[in-house]
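TA notes, week 10

Several of you asked for a full example with nothing omitted. So below is the full record: structure tokens for the whole chain, then the designed sequence directly under it. When grading your own attempts, check the secondary structure regions first.
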């Protein structure tokens, strides 16, 4: 029996069974659905993309996987080189892993060990944001502030190692003032907090965070697992404010295969690079640098660059703003739009009960959670398809 994610298995309704997928569409036996979730925000080029398919198939004909312990190969070398060019600043050192959660774990381990390697054992604390989500593994749950985990994490009591603050400059300054010698890093989902409720905040907060991190010698970590590759309307938030460590996942492979990367800058890398074996980064997921994942990631980045994806995302944002302009309802608290993300926050979660089936019947796949009804569509969506996704959301309130 399959144990499904985030579900009470006793009461969950049967999932829709997908038999085919192409472009923005998922197919069940009896319905054709626009995937307004992009398979958890990852399938930016749509399904069954001919070039991505070809990249995987041609690599599979050579070899699908070899470990990176003592071995290397061309796709991983090329992807590391590509990321060096594609990413801003001196984010040049790529540590691959198999999922976003693991890549965040790696970032947190890097940040802690960076100071340990210098003999600074005081910096055991992490600064993070209220409503943060960084993954489902233990340290990422602790750094996060996801309501879903509060219940189980209660078993440990309040964390000694993580401080959470709101996205307010005053709270940021106070936290740095109070914990400056104890912090190894400040980790954020920059500009857009996804699983915490599609919360959007201003770049001025990140700019101030960069200044304070420089002033107090704290590493700035951007978890761009969700925001990377255009979702906020920027290629990366890191293009606006440069972090010391950047984490990418989801869209890295165009949503084809689970893979992620923790990218360090020169300063962080130098903190590990010396003659002591103890100072090495002790991490090594079995499937890091998987050859199929690297091949498809290379092709995905090539498409992103050559097909002017940033213009596609600007168009999605323009259409979304146009369609949602003036839209309000007594059950709605707020409509938020940023780049390729739109979220309707309702006042009471009960308002969204039944929406998934309503959307299904109209040819849209959606997965609202808590008080949030959102769309993060594949970037190749047509205007007509996007209008249908947004129209279905609006229609729900007009019933
Ligand atoms: C910001 C952020 N970080 C980390 C993760 C975890 O990634 P994964 O599900 O690949 O472990 C997610 C997943 O939604 C995410 O949104």
């Amino acid at each position: 029996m399959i144990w499904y994610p985030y579900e009470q298995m006793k009461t969950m309704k049967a999932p829709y069974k997908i038999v085919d997928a192409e472009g923005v569409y998922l197919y069940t036996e009896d319905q054709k659905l626009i995937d307004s979730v992009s398979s958890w925000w990852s399938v930016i080029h749509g399904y069954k993309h001919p070039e991505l398919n070809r990249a995987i198939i041609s690599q599979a004909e050579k070899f699908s996987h070899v470990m990176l312990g003592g071995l290397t190969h061309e796709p991983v070398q090329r992807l590391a080189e590509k990321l060096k060019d594609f990413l801003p600043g001196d984010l040049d050192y790529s540590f691959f892993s198999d999922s976003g959660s693991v890549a965040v774990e790696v970032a947190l381990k890097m940040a802690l060990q960076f100071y340990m390697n210098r003999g600074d054992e005081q910096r055991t604390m992490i600064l993070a944001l209220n409503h943060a989500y960084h993954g489902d593994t233990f340290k990422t749950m602790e750094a996060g502030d996801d309501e879903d985990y509060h219940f189980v994490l209660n078993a440990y009591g309040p964390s000694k190692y993580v401080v959470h603050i709101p996205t307010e400059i005053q709270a940021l300054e106070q936290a740095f003032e109070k914990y400056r010698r104890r912090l190894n890093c400040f980790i954020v989902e920059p500009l857009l907090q996804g699983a915490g409720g599609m919360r959007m905040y201003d770049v001025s907060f990140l700019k101030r965070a960069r200044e304070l991190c420089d002033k107090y010698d704290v590493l700035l970590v951007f978890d761009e697992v969700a925001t990377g590759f255009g979702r906020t309307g920027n290629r990366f938030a890191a293009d606006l404010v440069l972090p010391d460590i950047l984490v990418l996942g989801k869209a890295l492979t165009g949503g084809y295969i689970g893979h992620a990367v923790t990218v360090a800058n020169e300063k962080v890398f130098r903190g590990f690079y010396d003659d002591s074996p103890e100072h090495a980064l002790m991490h090594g997921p079995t499937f890091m640098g998987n050859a199929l994942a690297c091949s498809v990631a290379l092709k995905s980045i090539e498409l992103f660059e050559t097909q002017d994806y940033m213009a596609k995302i600007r168009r999605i944002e323009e259409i979304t703003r146009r369609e949602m302009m003036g839209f309000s309802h007594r059950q709605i608290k707020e409509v938020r739009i940023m780049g390729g993300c739109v979220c309707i926050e309702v006042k009471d979660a009960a308002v969204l009960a039944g929406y998934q089936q309503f959307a299904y019947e109209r040819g849209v796949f959606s997965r609202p959670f808590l008080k949030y009804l959102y769309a993060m569509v594949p970037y190749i969506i047509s205007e007509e398809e996007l209008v249908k996704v947004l129209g279905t959301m609006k229609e729900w309130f007009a019933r």
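DSSP finds 13 helices and 16 strands in the chain. Use that as a sanity check on your answer.
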